[in-house]
């Protein structure tokens, strides 16, 4: 039995894994999907949200487990799992980047040009994706029922984690095996950008899905099979 710890991306919450969790559990594994601070059901004020706060939540979850984890990060969650691996390299069996940011030491998420569908608040502290732009950005290959359910749960995103650089070393982060799951039809992080990040930070193996930015909805069975192969 493996333990999968699933970390959502910006604007999302643990809810986005709702199709994946039961599939992995049915295969006999323990699966934990958490809300990062300020997301999902977590009530942390958006003004307090930071990358450190995200990472501390993940590290605390890892510390509370009796087994090393397969740590999966979607989109923005990629920077969170990378930083968590820097702090707990010996507690993480594998790092999995799902259409995610795979950054090098000292980089922040602005290494990729901001998506034109993002709207930054006047004071620069938060970012939103308008409901009418969400399908094109995140869910362009999803069923309408999944699209409607997801869009209704999207939240405001704090800017702070986007602009905070990761601090990674080869000694810690570099020793954890990395896997990347790319999406060929991703409109949020283009396949070209995904492959540029992979080239800069080579992974043990790269898996390809003919999916949008949200394979947990658009291609859940295929995604689950990949995760089981990594496990």
Q: Average pLDDT value?
A: 97
Architecture (CATH level 2) name: 3-Layer(aba) Sandwich
Unreliable segments of 5+ consecutive residues: none
Estimate the strand proportion.
15-25%
For this structure, the CATH topology is: Rossmann fold
The string of secondary-structure elements, in order, is: EHEHEHEEEHHEHEHEHH
Strand order of the largest sheet: 2-1-3-4-8-9
Query: How far do the termini sit from each other?
Result: 9 Å
CATH homologous superfamily grouping: Alpha/Beta hydrolase fold, catalytic domain
Helical segment tally? 9
What is the share of helical residues?
A: 25-40%
Largest sheet: 6 strands, parallel
Beta strands, count: 9
Give the total of domains. 1
Estimate the global geometry from the Cα principal axes: globular
The class by helix and strand makeup works out as: alpha/beta
- Round the Cα radius of gyration to an integer and report it: 16 Å
Q: Provide the CATH top-level class.
A: Alpha Beta
Short note summarizing the structure:
With 231 residues, this protein is an alpha/beta fold.
């Amino acid at each position: 039995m493996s333990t999968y710890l699933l970390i959502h991306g910006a604007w999302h919450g643990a809810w986005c894994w709702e199709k994946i969790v039961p599939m992995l559990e049915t295969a006999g594994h323990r699966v934990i999907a958490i809300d990062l601070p300020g997301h999902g059901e977590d009530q942390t004020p958006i003004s307090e949200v930071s990358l450190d706060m995200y990472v501390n939540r993940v590290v605390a979850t890892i510390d509370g487990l009796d087994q090393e984890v397969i740590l999966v990060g979607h989109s923005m969650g990629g920077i969170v799992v990378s930083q968590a691996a820097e702090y707990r390299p010996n507690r993480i069996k594998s790092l999995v980047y799902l259409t995610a940011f795979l950054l090098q030491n000292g980089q922040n998420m602005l290494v990729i040009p901001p998506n034109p569908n993002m709207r930054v608040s006047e004071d620069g502290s938060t970012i939103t994706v308008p409901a009418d732009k969400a399908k094109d950005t995140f869910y362009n290959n999803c069923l309408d029922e999944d699209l409607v359910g997801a869009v209704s749960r999207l939240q405001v995103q704090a800017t702070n984690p986007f602009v905070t650089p990761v601090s990674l070393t080869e000694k810690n982060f570099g020793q954890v095996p990395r896997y990347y799951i790319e999406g060929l039809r991703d409109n949020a992080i283009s396949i070209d950008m995904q492959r540029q990040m992979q080239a800069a930070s080579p992974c043990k193996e790269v898996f390809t899905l003919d999916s949008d930015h949200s394979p947990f909805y658009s291609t859940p069975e295929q995604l689950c099979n990949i995760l089981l192969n990594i496990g």
